Amino acid sequence: MISVQQQQWQPAHAFTQAIRHAERYGTPSITPFAKALSAHMQGEGLLGKATHLVVDRVVKHDLKNLY
Fold it and tell me: Rounded to an integer, what distance in angstroms lies between the CA atom of residue 47 and that of residue 57?
């Protein structure tokens, strides 16, 4: 049988710094995944616009060369 005589908790340094930063400056707002995905699929934002350009060119190329 094992019995615990002493327990010590030591959090990771980065974790404690993150907690202190959040307490001091507040937590940043994070865009919900569904909203970010919707914006991306509609071609909004930098990544969405770049994706639409690439997809449009690929589709045009495929239509021209595959069918």
Answer: 16
